[in-house]
Amino acid sequence: MLTGLNHLTLAVTDLARSLAFYRDVLGLRVEATWDAGAYLSLPGLWLCLSLDPGRSSEAAADYTHYAFSLGEAGFLPFVQRLRAANVREWRDNRSEGASFYFLDPDGHKLEAHVGDLASRLAACRQKPYAGMRFFNEP
């Protein structure tokens, strides 16, 4: 039986550039590096960067993305820091909770989000998506 998310591995085209982005811009902790990769962490998250020179850095056209949590008080300063670093945005927020959608140097779609599943479900109970069904009462 699965017990939770174990780790994320992102294929990157320039390891040094991506390591600097995740460490210096997003603030992840570097745990280990090697010639073709790096392990970084946040509480509850293990992120692996894996060098793949053949990967295209163009962002995919779909909605697949990885979201990081942050508190409401830190949201605007975090967004300002990303904008000051000229990080590209890829979407406007259309859902509950403050969100900032941005790209890493290889075009991976990322999100900084204030809130959690409970706050999302509470908002959806107030204004459900088309055809939405709930399976547990709050």
UniProtKB/TrEMBL annotation:
This is Fosfomycin resistance glutathione transferase. It holds the Pfam family Glyoxalase. PROSITE patterns: VOC. Keywords: Transferase. The keyword Cytoplasm does not apply. Its EC number is 2.5.1.18. Residues 4-115 form the VOC domain. One of its GO terms (molecular function) is glutathione transferase activity.
